[in-house]
């Protein structure tokens, strides 16, 4: 396995007043990462941004691994679906220009609260699958594989993500398996990772502290899961996502791709990234 870091992990360091969208490549190299990935944002409007990212990464000798973008394929209006497919295909073009061989896109945030029936995940799959398949067919022509992530509450359970992948049923479409995000859906992450490992194109290592929803609200920095438990981002290895065990499960399943450090804790971002990388490298080596 190789290690990478997402632009999201840098927090405010990603701003142009600090490291900026190119400076994080230099920092990733300095910290010892093999690759870097990006989340979509305003930097993409900078002239030749994708080319500049590709060239800076080449200079530093690290790989641009993937681009993660927002999307909403839960469109019942055919015109809106066509527009969303076209927009996400434009993101594929950006990913290809960056030199990324992977792109993660969102699926949907779920149905509105005003919808009182026909609002289950199966109902959503019937709407979103064709658009997702159309995007991945386009991406395949560009040399980019597309992925869904267990992310965003609605499409977060292992069973849901697995069902979506098997419904889209295209070799170019797979999973970005986030080792911590299953906790947002109140699942045991190690069990969920064992289900999703065969579908993995890419992996995020993210850790969380956990408190029962029966406890007093711990306040700032914490958010609630679907069932009302509390989570707070943690340095990899410090929390309760059982990252070591999940990494071993991935290895047993034959996964040998990138594992990205995704840090969203309350510590300084650079410290969180560095400490998380150190632990992740130990876990990949099988050390406790």
Written overview of the protein:
With 288 residues, the chain is α/β, with parallel strands linked by helices. It has one domain: Alpha-Beta Barrel (TIM Barrel). It is built from eight helices and eleven strands. The strands form two sheets. It has an eight-stranded parallel barrel with strand order 1-2-3-4-5-6-7-11, surrounded by six helices. Strands 8-10-9 form a three-stranded antiparallel beta sheet, with no helix packed on it. Helix 1 links the parallel strand 1 and strand 2. Helix 2 packs parallel to helix 3.
Q: Class by helix and strand content? A: alpha/beta
- The CATH class is Alpha Beta
CATH architecture: Alpha-Beta Barrel
Rounded to the nearest angstrom, the distance between the terminal CA atoms is 17 Å
Q: Low-confidence runs (pLDDT<50, min 5 residues)?
A: none
Helix content: 25-40%
Name the CATH superfamily assignment. Divalent-metal-dependent TIM barrel enzymes
* Rg of Cα set: 18 Å
Percentage of residues in strands: 15-25%
CATH topology descriptor: TIM Barrel
Number of domains: 1
Number of strands: 11
Instruction: Give the overall pLDDT as a whole number.
Output: 98
């Amino acid at each position: 396995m190789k290690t990478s870091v997402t632009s999201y992990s840098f927090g405010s360091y990603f701003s142009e007043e600090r490291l900026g969208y190119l400076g994080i490549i230099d920092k990733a190299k300095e910290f010892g990462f093999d690759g870097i990935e990006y989340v979509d944002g305003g930097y993409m409007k900078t002239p030749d941004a994708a080319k500049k990212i590709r060239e800076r990464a080449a200079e530093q000798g690290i790989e641009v691994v993937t681009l993660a973008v927002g999307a909403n394929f839960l469109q019942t209006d055919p015109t809106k679906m066509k527009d969303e497919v076209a927009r996400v295909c434009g993101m594929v073009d950006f990913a290809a220009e960056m030199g990324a061989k992977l792109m993660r896109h969102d699926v949907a945030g779920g149905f509105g609260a005003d919808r009182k029936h026909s609002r289950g995940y199966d109902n959503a799959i019937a709407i979103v699958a064709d658009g997702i398949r159309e995007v991945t067919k386009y991406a395949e022509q560009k040399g980019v594989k597309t992925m869904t992530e267990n992310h965003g509450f609605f499409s977060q359970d292992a069973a849901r993500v697995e069902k979506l992948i098997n419904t889209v049923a295209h070799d170019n479409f797979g999973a970005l398996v986030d080792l911590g995000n299953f906790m947002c859906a109140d699942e045991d992450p190690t069990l969920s990772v064992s289900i999703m490992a065969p579908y993995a194109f890419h992996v995020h290592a993210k850790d969380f502290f956990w408190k029962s929803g029966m406890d007093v609200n711990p306040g700032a920095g914490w958010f609630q899961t679907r069932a009302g438990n509390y989570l707070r981002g943690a340095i990899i290895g410090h929390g309760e996502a059982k990252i070591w065990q999940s990494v071993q499960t991935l290895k047993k399943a034959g996964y040998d791709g990138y594992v990205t450090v995704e840090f969203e804790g309350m510590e300084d971002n650079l410290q969180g990234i560095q400490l998380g990388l150190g632990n992740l490298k130990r876990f990949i080596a099988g050390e406790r």
